[in-house]
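Figure 6 in text form: structure in, sequence out.
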């Protein structure tokens, strides 16, 4: 994070960076950490916290439903903490509560299980940045040890994520590019546009 000379108290807003497996979220969020000031808070991914910490990742429907309920609750708590701690202007979420719909195996309705509605969850976020998953021949990353999906499965998940967020009024969809830095730059431009002027004027040029 770059130092910021802004002393303003900020009106916090939540922004989601989402996308299917291999879309480049991790790399983009690391670039955000390097390019923006401390008033842009980047949250960790709830699923990585859970699965990296040993939460069972079994293939059965019951286990998958349990995992999505747990991810939803961890995401909610991460966001709640970010909305009360420090002085961020932007809280950048590595996926949001709506993403769980794309992973929900059924039976039963995801929203009913969690005691909320799609409209309520969409309204939590001021902007959605969707990084599209690349095709198998165009940069899909097989190296993440927590990633179990094939390129075809990743593309299907990405399509379900797009459908889950399609009713959000402010969506930026960034297609995959042969040059990942071009894709990442477009995401950084979208984030920078949401940073208040009191912080933005102190930021260095984007990479």
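Output sequence:
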């Amino acid at each position: 994070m770059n130092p910021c000379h802004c002393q303003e108290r900020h009106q916090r807003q939540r922004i989601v960076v989402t996308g299917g497996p291999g879309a480049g979220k991790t790399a983009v969020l690391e670039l955000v950490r390097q390019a923006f000031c401390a008033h842009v808070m980047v949250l960790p991914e709830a699923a990585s916290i859970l699965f990296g910490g040993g939460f069972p990742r079994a293939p059965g429907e019951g286990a998958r439903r349990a995992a999505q309920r747990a991810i939803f609750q961890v995401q909610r708590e991460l966001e709640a903490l970010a909305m009360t701690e420090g002085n961020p202007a932007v809280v950048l979420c590595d996926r949001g509560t709506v993403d769980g719909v794309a992973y929900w195996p059924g039976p039963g309705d995801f929203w009913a299980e969690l005691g909320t509605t799609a409209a309520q969850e969409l309204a939590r976020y001021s902007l959605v940045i969707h990084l599209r998953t690349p095709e198998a021949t165009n940069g899909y990353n097989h190296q993440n040890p927590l990633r179990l999906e094939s390129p075809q499965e990743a593309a299907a998940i990405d399509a379900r994520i797009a459908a889950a967020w399609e009713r959000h009024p402010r969506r930026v969809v960034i297609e995959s590019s042969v040059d990942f830095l071009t894709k990442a730059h477009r995401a950084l431009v979208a984030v920078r546009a949401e940073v208040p002027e009191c912080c933005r004027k102190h930021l260095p040029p984007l990479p």
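Caption detail: The mean pLDDT is 91.
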